[in-house]
Amino acid sequence: MSVLSSISLLSDAKYFDDKNSKFNELKENLDHKTTKKRLSAMKRLIAMMTLGRDVSSFFPDVVKNVIVDNTEIKKLVYMFLTHYAEDNQELALLAINTLQKDLGSSNQRVRANALRAMSSISIKVVIPLVMIALNNAVRDTSSYVRKAAACAVPKVWRTDPSKKPELVEMIAELLSNTEPNVLGASIFAFNQVCPERLDLLHIHFRKICALLADFDYFGQAVTLKVLTRYARTQFLTPFRKKQAGKDDDDSDDDGGFDADEPFYDNDEDEDEKKDPDEYNMDPDHRLLIRSATILLNSADSAVITGVCSLMFSIAPIHEARQCAPAIARHLSNYREIQYVVLTNVSTMAAKRPSMFRQYVKMFFVYFDDPAFIRTLKLDILAHLASDGTIGPILLELFSYTHHYDGDFVNQAIRTIGRCAMTIPDVAERCLHMLLRLVSTSTETVVAQAISVIRQLLQRDPKSHVSIIKRMAKLLFKVKIAMARTALVWIVGEYREMIPKVAPDCLRQLAKTFKEEDVEVKLQVLNLAVKLYLSNPKETSLLFKYIMDLSKNDQNFDVRDRARMVRSLFFKKKGEALNDPSTELKTKTKMLMKRCFLWAKPVPETENPFKARETLTLGSLSHVVQHSVQGYQALPEFPTVAPDRSVREPPRSALDEVADRRRAKASRKYSNVDDFYKSSSDSDSDEDTDSSDSDEDEDTSDSDEEDKPKQKRVKKTKDDDHGNDEDSDSSSSGSDSDSNSDSDSDSDSEDDNDKPQVRTNNTLSQPQPAAQTNVGGLLNLLDDDDDDQPVTTNPAPSAPSQQPDIFASLTFEDNFIGGGRPATNSSSDSKDQVQLFDKIRMPRHGSKGVLLKESLGEGMEVQYAFIRQDSIYSKTMSVVELTFLSKVEVRDIHMTSVDVKQMEVRKFDKIPVLHAHQSTTANLHIDFKGSERKLKFSIGTTDRTYPVTLAPKAGDLLKSHPMSISAFDTARKRLTGMQETSFVTSKATSTEDLASKITKFVDIAVLSLNPSNPKLFRLSAHHRHDPSQLVLISVDEASGGKYNVTINCDDMLFSGSLSDYLHKAIGK
């Protein structure tokens, strides 16, 4: 198929050759009788249109071909109409009739293409017709057409915004769909037309979360953005109180480079213990986070970015850390995608650096990284610097100083300074590293290093006097203006620490003052003023000399500053001492002294991408660092929890009937509880039940007004009788209260007597369960039943009826409400589906090697069968392929598949896999219930590697929970040749052996039967055919050995599974 597709692409490439484009020939072919000629002419026109040539002159000839029945020609004609309809509105109207006719076609693709073309014609005259077509399309039986309708809604809104109310109603109807492709397109239309109408999502929120994994990549990316905004308005903040205004989570991070704590943490109980201040999260909030976490395994970078934005914005800090491995996996993608991913990482690392500190090496710069990628990686490394990661980061940054790109070297040096300012403990180390650059590197590197050293010295100058002297000596070696400016500033700022060196530096600078740059001259002038104010005796002559040089300088900035300083520090000839201007000059001189000699503030670290921190992750505004048109900022979390009942689905009449029946059943059980309770509790409870019964029966009477009159009469009699029973029960309860005050002797005598049944259908004082009259209990259970007539004088029931009474009672009824005979304690568990919870089921089966590293030329491929249903079909097995490579591999894809009666869904193409990295992809296969091998090839840009995937017998099964009674019944049926067994000693107990079996077979471990707690039952069925059961029993044998018995509908498969398990357990 790949060869045929390549040939097809090569054959279509000829249409992009302008040399063969002849307009007259194209017009003739568009009117030609044969379909082949018309198709060739349309392909030529679309190719010319793609190249940017104006082919609108062919519009009349193209419109004629709308009536052609060929689907491929129709599609090309629709594309042409969409592109040129706005410039040729009158001619475009000629195609409307044909488009309307195609909307009624039996082919769903023709209907969808016609609707897509019709909605793309941006002409207001056509909008009424498009609205009619949309009204029909949103209710179309084909999901493909409904998806096209959802995509057409934003186009109509952009053409005619006045139609927004009608379009919002259509969007509300489209959101009620359950097909993932339609629902994803509907959310896209919602986000374009009415993003402020979040109330439309209330009743569909849980459905969207449940189907989110089934959306296409585009739908998932759009839905994640919408759900992020929805969660910020409907849920409370999940962040701890002490971090409500600060997102940095360094307080609970150890800062280590190789942290031992698990990165993935799915235990909610542990999470709650870690964050005691975290609020009780809304279940819908938790549902959204879990649904989004599943998408972290997506192969699309836009989906990963959307998930990270959602988790970063609405998820607790410890759960947001799950995004880091997914982001690191996408750093090996194309450079444009890398840039977008790294912009998000930069913002997240600035607020929560602990998320990525374990993956700090993933952000080291590669030799082939472009400049914009290198800049972002340096910013991320500066954010990730901590006590545990600063070592490898500084070594990496120092190696960047030898890069060929001078701008990148300067950025690396500035990053070293940022690390030193972030972690004061390593400032000394960074200073010595920068001093090494000053003494050994080129002039540009020296200039940048001195500038950074100046900033570091301001933090603690008294501890680095020797470094200040060394900087003063460099003043006579460095020639770059920026570096000399920094050195002169250092000498003038810390003149008191070097009182003998500073005047000598001024003397040397006065000699070269005329040749210095303007920036250096201004700093020399400042140095002269500082030394004159602090040590006028030694520097007064130098000060006057510098002033004279500056007064006649060619640059006006230098001249103006020199004249201002002279006017303050020197008096004019003949100026009186008591002149008012003299006092003003004195005050100004004091101000100038404070200005020049005032201690400068310590510089703060500057983040070059600080503007991104306030913008939403994953948005275009976040990438370009400013708000663009259409940008929507994330709203703040509400202070009061909104009503969560708005997300409850609307209730129907059938739901209300079911609730009444459940309430009636619960009252029956509560009557049995009252029988076993104390007499004082019985009084109040029976009164309440009586009132409840009256209300419920009145409601049932109103519901059955349309029934025949005879039934109403019968119902009324039953109700009256039931009320009488309640009143008698109440009086019985009061009698019991009075009798409870009797002496202990009379009580003991009453305990030995059997309970008496009264003629008014009430029970006497409660007695032990073994002596209870069952007939009275039956009457209580049937007290509120409308279908059973109530007898006034019930006879005592036989003891054989006693198990039926307790068959419907729960655990609380049996043991809290008065007990139950021990002989029947396990009858319920046999009929219920319960699993053995002490054995944890693995996520996948045993792993294998599909392609060895030696055969793959540095690339290794491993595989494992994942124990989950495929998104394509429940009969398909999901195989997770793990690609590991020691060299860079590009364009990894699946080719040359030898199906042989199997159904295969290929894994998505992997664009690039960098060296010493790994990635995963899912392969979906329906083996049709057999163990036949799948042969295919894994291709790259220049090589293909043939591989063979052979499933084991345990990989073809799926766990099938069932009750113990159903298991025993099925096992009795599957005997004889359908049963195989083997004996093994490779286990310490039956539980250990059952746990080993779950590692090789996707099978359910049923709960134990109390009568035989050492017998383990395991059940599964064929993934391809669920009707074929596979039952495994594990029991003890003599001599420390264990029996494993397999019962299966397929005799051959039973033997194959037995051999496979015997060998696997033996290993």
UniProtKB/TrEMBL annotation:
User: Which residue ranges are recorded for the region named Disordered?
Assistant: 241-280, 635-803
Query: Which residue numbers delimit the AP-3 complex subunit beta C-terminal domain?
Result: 777-932
Instruction: State where composition is biased (Acidic residues).
Output: 247-272, 682-705, 738-752
PANTHER family assigned: ADAPTOR COMPLEX SUBUNIT BETA FAMILY MEMBER (PTHR11134)
Task: Record the organism.
Answer: Lotharella globosa
- Annotated GO biological process: intracellular protein transport; vesicle-mediated transport
Describe the task this protein carries out.
Answer: Subunit of non-clathrin- and clathrin-associated adaptor protein complex 3 (AP-3) that plays a role in protein sorting in the late-Golgi/trans-Golgi network (TGN) and/or endosomes. The AP complexes mediate both the recruitment of clathrin to membranes and the recognition of sorting signals within the cytosolic tails of transmembrane cargo molecules. AP-3 appears to be involved in the sorting of a subset of transmembrane proteins targeted to lysosomes and lysosome-related organelles.
User: According to the UniProt entry, which residue ranges have a biased composition of type Polar residues?
Assistant: 757-774, 789-803
Q: Where in the cell is it found?
A: Cytoplasmic vesicle, Clathrin-coated vesicle membrane; Golgi apparatus
Q: What is this protein called?
A: AP-3 complex subunit beta
